[in-house]
Amino acid sequence: MKYAAFKLAGVALSLALAWNASAEPLRVAADPVPHAEILKFIQKQDPKLDLKIVELTSGVNANELLANGDVDANYFQHVPYLKDQEKALGKTFAVAATVHIEPLGIYSHKHKDLQSLPEGATVAVPNNTTNLSRALFLLQSKGLIKLAAKFTDPATTLATPKDIVENPHKLKILEVESPQIPRSLDDVDLAVINGNYALEAGLTPAKDALGLESAEHNPYANILVTNPQLANDPRIKALAKDLTSPQVAEFIRQHYNGSVIPVSAPQS
After folding, report:
1. So what's the pLDDT on residue 12?
2. pLDDT at 21
3. Across the chain, what does the average pLDDT equal?
4. What is the reported pLDDT for 22?
5. CATH architecture for the domain at 103-210
6. What was the pLDDT predicted at 16?
7. Using 50, 70 and 90 to split pLDDT, how confident is the model at 216?
8. Domain residue spans in the chain?
9. Average of per-residue pLDDT across 177-195
10. Can 24-101+219-260 and 103-210 be said to share one CATH topology?
11. Rounded to 10 degrees, what is the CA torsion of 227, 222, 174, 259?
């Protein structure tokens, strides 16, 4: 009888903790653009979901925040980056929703097209493992370089500059912290910039990019991520449902004009 009573007390305590967690604001770390903007739209559309948006600043690792319990979820990354982070942090996270694509773009303040590049042109690319590889695949897709034959799938093979086997323009690859790349546009010939940082810098990827990543079969869709123990939390479920709703998809289409592309919902 004592064991049964103890067990029932434990179940009651677990239910109480779950209820208390659901009663707390859902803390979500997000890049300011477009992620936090999308979350702010959800705050207006679904006021009963108590969201606390934690806007990320340069140098803050949102996966470390999540692993340490400082936030309940984050919304800023794609699956290849998440997998790399899981290895680096020795943690396992849970993907709660797949939301949108921010096509990687090639930009320049010095050249109007990719055909006018001089020999020895300098190209700034992201310095983190996954986005560096992504940038090299984009440069290859535009005919600027060629990677070794084994690099066929950007989702499963990570390329580095050492894997370039053809470089007809003798491009100089300069690895830079992703948030800093827009500031380098005046100093380099080309810059490969993540969609969110391009938007923050006042660029319109769909209009300003000299070359843009294809959205079709793109493995870099941005995701809502949480800890495994929160994967079934009602607040996470509600946010995931909101993020993949037709209303949010329509907001993304209208607000970003092709620079951010919803992947999870049909047009309303």
Report:
1. 47
2. 53
3. 91
4. 61
5. 3-Layer(aba) Sandwich (3.40)
6. 45
7. confident
8. 24-101+219-260, 103-210
9. 96
10. yes
11. -160
Q: What is the pTM of this model?
A: 0.82
Beta bridge partners of 125: 175
* CATH number of the domain located at residue range(s) 24-101+219-260 in this protein: 3.40.190.10
What torsion, rounded to 10 degrees, do the Cα atoms 123, 118, 199, 31 define?
A: 0
Alpha carbon distance 73, 66 (integer Å): 6
